[in-house]
Every structure is written in structure tokens, then in C-alpha cells.
């Protein structure tokens, strides 16, 4: 039967504890370790490619990338011998994997191809002397890899990749201190550096050994080297043929390296010597944990979560300056790894708290120093153990809880984190409702039912269930169960009512499983018991108890009477009521078990971080793949059975595609046409909707306002630009006209110059023709003389040839005679030499015979001596052979003893490890029991206190109840009265609300109007301030001009007094010129537009002044007229009052003398003239009081008129001080007095 396979699909998490574990394989893909996997994450497409870890290893410890980015190396830790698992499901698979098991006796380095993601090579050897590699690095030619081993040996090993053999090894830490990192020089493949606590060593690799190289940085003492990096000065070619051999590489330049130390300093080393020291931070606590290079310098990741950029300065080759710093997190978390993309578009950081942060590096200029950028891409993973995980049926989400005090909702379709909730207590368990809109979370203090809103997780109900390590919704979602110690509490989901508590376990409950129809519930505990409960009667219907086994997981099967359990006994058991149907033993403990409804597969998680797929019904065969580092804490399967999610102790979530060759799980796939689509609805509060609507309305209003404002500004800009265009056109047109005039002038000058040059050319040609004739005549004369000389020389040559021919004949004869004499002489000398040669040959033969005789004698002597020496050495050799045989026997005995001791040590270590593991398990059980006891004691105490308080409360309530019954009758009567009063009050309240709404609308309109008026007032104030300043300046200029005019008048008067004396007049005029004119005025050409604008402004101001003067004069005349008229009216009224008072006095006197006046008039009637008497009207007291009141009113009116006059005078003064004028199209230069 073919097994199903688990294909890694996506990983939520990162293993940030590994330093230097971030690399860009192309422009947008970054590779990093997560769990026991290697993840290739595309930043733009948000997709992943995953390489699973090697079986029989205990996690990834280091990774590195080749310089040409074609291969990647992964170092994995050794698993102890007794923990190794034979992977596979069949004997053939076990045999196929045996070579890996042989290699797994030592830590391994796997080489993968980047494009195909297939394993190419595996390196494993005993020279490392440790169970792990802490750091690995490729050389620049990608032919060799340097691996730094861990403790206790701390050996540095170099591997030949072609031969897959160890080249050399060397111990880097002599005091046993930790080694951190190894790097290879990018310019010299033979140069390797290693750093650690108290040392920084440099080695030169040869064909057989690692030779130490003395450097300046290696002499530093009491320093911890945290990180170092070689600067890449020139990128290597992709072709391997262009890289030189190791012998020729020794002649290359070593390059520059930078070291980070624990004092916060950066050491720049070139050629083995420290050339510069850079202080990374103000505080010594700010240490550099990672470094990477970019085009302008290098980038450092500090322990405070800040990324610093250093740029190379022009002042020196090794001078760098800090130009910017980026804060990756507000919490100040240490940066363990940092990488920048090839085209420098992305900067990715791996934080100590398992967070992965990507920042678009091209937006660096928009980031302020020590500020967290807003456009970062943050992968918010769990930072601690994942304690709970649940997968929804209707929505593609996974809910997880962790000891980092957070609850997270993941979307496994969009590969994003939808919601994050932070809480003050640790979250121990979580379960998602099948609808996907509610979650149940068990905290240390309480059990909480929460709603999943659009952007928040809101608490709906809290239950007094503490430390619930397991909770689960039923299959239909109408019930949920939660554990507390050894009790299980059952609640209804929609009423939150407790329908029952199940108590039967003697230990903590560690597993819950609902049946498919929600009629039964399976529970498993650390007491070794599994119970099946009937929900209707809340009673046990089946039970299975295995003493000594602490169950950690249980699963039920649809339409079957059996169930499955896993625990500390390392067995997968198929159980029924009180019997074990099947049991399969595993080398490692199984922590979780899940089986989908209607599936033919069963899934389990192990304490080594692996996920297994078993065939159901069980046959013992399984498929296994590495998932996490550490134990698998939770398992979940999607409703369609195509996706498996594993959560581990390292905080990572690994998702697998389930590939069943028999397609037993494809019936419920959502890829089918008839399958139900994922739910897309979300919960949201009504207040949030109202707020969003109000924000939308506000934004729409702002958009309308902005559109109006922009339209207004656009029109204003169009007008302004139109005027500017017109002015510019006029200016350019004027310049064009000027240039046309200049061109016409220049053309005219050119024509004149051409005529002048033609005339000069004709004159020059005439002069040249005359000179040419003179030169030709002189040349003809000279030629005639030279011809005569040539004929004479020709005659001399003929005579000389005849003379030299005679001399040559004589010389030839002499030479022939001399040659004959020389030949004869040399022949005689040759005969003598031949005779001497023959004599030397005979002497040589005699010397050779003598040499042969001497050699023969020496050989005989040496043979004799050799025989003697051989005899002596044979005697010594026989004795040495005897000694060697004896030593070999002793060595064999010692080796046998050593192997026996090694086996004993290994056995003892295994026994110790098992004892420690048992001790640890016992301590865990004891701690769990103690915590349970403490919790139970607290519960008992709290319940006692609650009972006491409730009894007191009941007594108080009874007493208050009696008092309240007394007031009941009174309150009923008052309620009736209040109901009668409520109706009219509600009507008044409604009217008042309408009035308030109208007043609010009016208030809004008034507020808007006031804002507009405020803007207008601000503009008017600015205009007034400008006018004031302009007026002050103008008055100052007028005052200065007045003073200057007075001085000029005085000087001119003095000049007029001396008009008769011409010399004095001239001297005085020159002084006046030097004083008033010289050096103060420059004749410059003024722009016509400025003159026009100035004339326009001056005309406007003159008209404005005239209008103001006329208005002022008219107001003055009106005021004078009013004042005069008021004075006249006052005078007339005063006169009338005076006359009335006089008439009143005369009337009183006349009334008293009325009688006597009549008698006198009758007596003198005949003798005197006729007297005419006018009757004065009588005034009563009321009339007098009215006149007095009228006079008082007139006095008040005069006072009011006086205040009005004073106010007009003040306005007149202000009008004189302020000169208002309209703002021109552009700011004009200041107006001088000379214009």
C-alpha cells in the first residue's frame, strides 16, 4: 500500500538564534532557516519554497551561500545514537537510508542547488570533534568550504567539495572558549579567519594543513570578537575557469576586513594590521551583532535594534562616517542577522525575538534618524512556545496561542497575519468556532470567549476556569469544553451556561476530542486514563487506563468504536473499552495525534519536531518529515483534509500539503465545483460602522472643500501664469526687437567690412604680384650661377673618378699579396696546434687510466665498508623489529581497552542521559502536581471566602428587602405621578432637541463664517502691517529728503552770496557736487514694466490721496457746519431760556402790582400818552421743569457731539498715517526719491 507524502507548503516563523543566516539568492528572494527547514521567501510575491531538514539530525546550526549564488550549504546538528530514527515505512526505504545513518554519526553539511532545490553533496567526518558546526563559509572560488566546529574541541575544518574530503583541520580555541564565526577572504581563497571569545585567528590554507598567520588584530587580549566581515572589492566571475589556483592565489592581495568587539568598537584591518577604529555607539552596551556591505560602505545591526549606515569618506581609504540610523523596533530587540538585496532595493533583518523585518532600502532618504519606518514589511511570528492551535471549518484561518502572551489569527490562503491580541497573562490553549467568528482562549487567570472583529479581538464572556491547558469547540459549535486540572467543564456556546462538570481523572487532563455528532467527548490525562463521556447524561460510557503512561493526545474516529492515544510510553495505541487493540512502538515519544473525519490517514507529531503520516487502518508503516526544532506541541488538519499544520516549541508553524496517491481525501476539496466557498464576512461593531460612516462623510466634505479650493487655486494660478506669460512674452518680444536691430546693425557693419577687406585684398594682391616678379628675376639669376657651378663640378668629378680608379687597382694588388702571406702563416700555426692537440690527447688517456685505477681502489674500500655497515644495521633492524612487534601487541591491547572504555563511557552517558530525562520528567510531574495543588488550595480558599461573603450578602439583602418593601408603596405612587408628568416633558424635550439641532447647525454655519472672517482679518492685518511699514519708510525718506533739502538750500544761499567771485562759485559748486551727487547716483536703465507699474501705483496713490483729502475736507466742512449749527441752536435755546426766565420774573412782579397799576393808569389817563401793555403768558412749575429737562438734554447732546468730534479727529490722524494700496501682481522694488 502506497503511503501519503507531506510536502512543505508554508512556514510561519524564523530561527533567528543562528547568526549570519540571511542571504539574498536574487533581487527579491531571501533565504533563512525556520524550524527544521530552509525557507526561500519572495518579498514581492509573498511566496515560499522550502527545503526540509535531513532526517536523523537535530536541527539547523548554520547556513552559507556561494559567492556566485548557485549553491547553498546547510549544517545540521548530530542526534545522539539512541535517538536516531529509521525513517521510512518499508524495509527497502530503511535500507536506502542506511548511508545517511552512517554519515549521521557526525554532524553533516548538505549542499543544495539553488535552482532545483535538490541535494547535491553531503559532507561528514570525524575531524570536527563536536556534535555541531557553529559557522560555515565558502571560499571565493566555491571549491572549498571552511567549517567551524563546536565544543569541546572547537576545530576549524576545510573541505574539498569536488573530492568531498577533509583537507586540513586546526584547533582555534586553546582555552576552550566559544568560537562564533568563520569567514573566507573574497580576494584570496587560501585566507580563512575565525573569531570567538578572546581570539581572532587568521589561517592560510595549503594542500595539507592550515598555517596560522600573525596579524595585528590577533594580538588583542581580553576582547570578545562578536562578528567580522571581509569587504568585497571586486565581484568574482560566474565562470569557474577564471578563478586562479590555490598556489597562484597566495600572491593575491589579502583585502580589508572589519571586526566587531564587545566594547562597541569596529576594527578595520587591512593587510593584517589595524588601520582604523570606529566607535559604533555612545554607550558600550550598544554592540554591533551583524555587518553587511553595500555600494557606499557597510551596514551594521546593533544590539539595541538599530541599523546604522556607514559611508566611505573621500578623506582617506579607510575612513567611514555614520550617515544614518534606522530603528527597526521600539522595544530595542537585538538584530542577529542582516542582509541587503543585490540591487539594494531591500534590507532584511532577523531579530532576536524571532521577527523578520524587511525595509525598502530605496526609501532610505525619507526616514529620519532613530525613527521606525512606516513602510516596513514585518513578519510577526511567535517569540515563545506555541501552546494552542486550532483550524476553522468555514474560514481559511488558524488561531494560535503562545507563552509570549499573544493570540494570533493566521490566514493560510493569503499567507498573512490577520489579527494579533496581546494580554497580560499567558495564553495556554485556543479553539476556533466552526463559523470562524469566535475563539475560546484559556488563560492563566480565566477562560475567555472572544469575538473576531474586523481589526480587533473583543472579549465577550469570561469564565472562572483557571489555567485551562485544553479547550475545544464541538464539531457543530453549539458546545465547548475546557479543562482545569483534572476537571472538564462543559458550556453551551450561545447561552454560555454551564451544563455540567466532568470529574474522574486523578491527574491533569491533556487531551480533548469531540465525536462527529457531538454526542460524546473523549478526555485523556497524565494519569494514564482515557474516558469517553456521554454528553446527554454526563456519565462515562467507556474507559481505558494504562498505568505509567502520561497521555498527551487523543483522537476519535468517525463511525468506529475505537480511538487513538499517544503519550510518554512512545507508543501509538488503538484502544477500545478497557482493551488495547493495536500498539506500535516508536523510538521517540509521540506528542500529538489527529485523524480527519472520513479519512484513511492518521497524523502524529513527535518530540523531535517531526510529523508522521500513518495509513489507517494501522499497519505500522508511516511517512515522516522534519517540521520544527524541538517538540511538536499541536497538530491541525483542514476540513478538506489537504493541509496539515504543525506548531512547535520554537514558535514556528509549518504547513504541509497532504499528497495521498489514492486520493482518499479529495472528496471534500474546495477545488471542486460543488464545494462550499470560504466565508468572507466579518464582524464589526455598530459604533465602528457609525464612526467609519462619519469619517467617510467628513472625508467627502473635505474632498469637496479641497476640490473647490483646488479649483480656485487652479484658476488663480491660471490667471497668474497668464499674466506672467504675457509679461514674459512682452519681455521676449522686446528682446527680439532689440536683437533684430542689433543683427541689422551687424549685417550693415559686415557689408562695410567686406568692402573694406576687398579693397585691402586688391592692394595686397598688387603688392604680392610686384614682389613675385622681383623674386622670379632673382631666382633666374641665381639659377644661371648654379648651372655654371654644376658644370665645373661635373668636370672635377670625371677627373676624380679616373684618379681613384688607379688607386683602387694598386690597393687590390697589395691586398692579394698580404692575404697570401697570412694564409701561409696560419697554416704553419695550425700544424703546431695539431701536434699539441695530439700530445694533450695522449696525456688525457693516461690520466683516465690513472683515474680508473684510483676509482677501482675506492670502490673496493667502500664495498668493504658498506658490508660492515650493512651487517651492523641488520643487527639493529632485527632488534627494532622485535621491539616493534612487542609495541604492536601492547598497542592492540591498549586499543581494545580504549574501545571498551569508550563503550563503557557511552553506555554510562546514555544511562546518565536517561536518568536525567527521567529526573526531568519526574520534576515536571512534581511541578505540575505542585502547581495543581497550589491552584486547588487557592480555589478552596477563594470558595470559602466566596461562601462567607455570599452568606453576609444574603443576610444584608434580606434586611434590605424588608426596608425596600416599605418603600414599595410610596414608590408606586410616585411612579404614577411621574408617568403623568413624563408625557408633557417628553414633548418639551423633543422640541428642545429640535431647537438644539437647529442651533447646532447655526453654530456650525457661524463657526465656518467666523473662520472665513478670521482668514480675511488675518489678510487685512497683513496688508495694514505692510502699509504701515511702507508709510514709515516713506516718511523716513521724506524726513531725510527734507533735511537734505535744507542743507542744500543753505549751501545754495551761500553760493548766491559769492556770485561775483567766479573762483569761489566754482569751488562751491564742486563741493556741492561732491557732497550731494558724486558716488550717490548711478545711471541705470530701468525696466519699462517697472516704470509703468510705478507710474500706475503713483497715479493710484495720488488719486487715493486726493480722494482721502476730499473726503477729509468734506468731513471737516460737515463737522464745522454741524458744529456751527449746534452752537447756534444752543445759543438760541439759551437765549429762549433766559427770555423765558426773565418773562417769568416779570410776570410774577406784574401780578403783585396789578392793583396799583390800574389806579395810576385811570388817574393819568387824560394827561399822559396812551401806553400799550403786552400780556405775558403764565408758566407753571411743570413747564419750567420741562424747559430745564430740555436744557439738560441739549447739554448731553453737546457732550455726545464733542465725543463724536474727538473720534473723527482720531480717525483723521489714523487715515493720515495709513496709506492703503492694492497688491500688485508681483512684488516691486522699493521706490527711490530720485524716480
Question: What are its keywords?
Answer:
single chain, 1235 residues, alpha+beta, 4-stranded antiparallel β-sheet, flat, disordered C terminus
Structure report:
The chain is built from eight helices and 56 strands. The model is unreliable at 81-103, 235-252, 664-670, 1157-1179 and 1218-1235 (pLDDT under 50). It is flat. Strand 12 (155-160) and strand 13 form a beta hairpin. A four-stranded antiparallel sheet has the order 1-56-55-54, with no helix packed on it. Helix 6 (1088-1152) packs antiparallel against helix 8. The protein has 1235 residues and is of the alpha+beta class. It starts with a strand and ends in an 18-residue tail after the last helix.
The percent of residues in helical segments reads: 40-55%
Described by the principal axes of the CA atoms, the overall outline is flat
**Overall mean pLDDT:** 81
- How much of the residues is beta strand, in percent? 25-35%
| Number of discrete helical segments | 8
Q: How large is the radius of gyration? A: 57 Å
Sheet of most strands: 4 strands, antiparallel
- Order of strands across the biggest sheet? 1-56-55-54
What would you call the structural class?
alpha+beta
DSSP strand count:
56
Weakly predicted, low-confidence segments: 81-103, 235-252, 664-670, 1157-1179, 1218-1235
| Distance between the ends | 110 Å
WD repeats: 379-411, 502-543
Protein name: Cilia-and flagella-associated protein 57
Pfam families: WD40
Coiled coil: 736-768, 823-864, 1184-1211
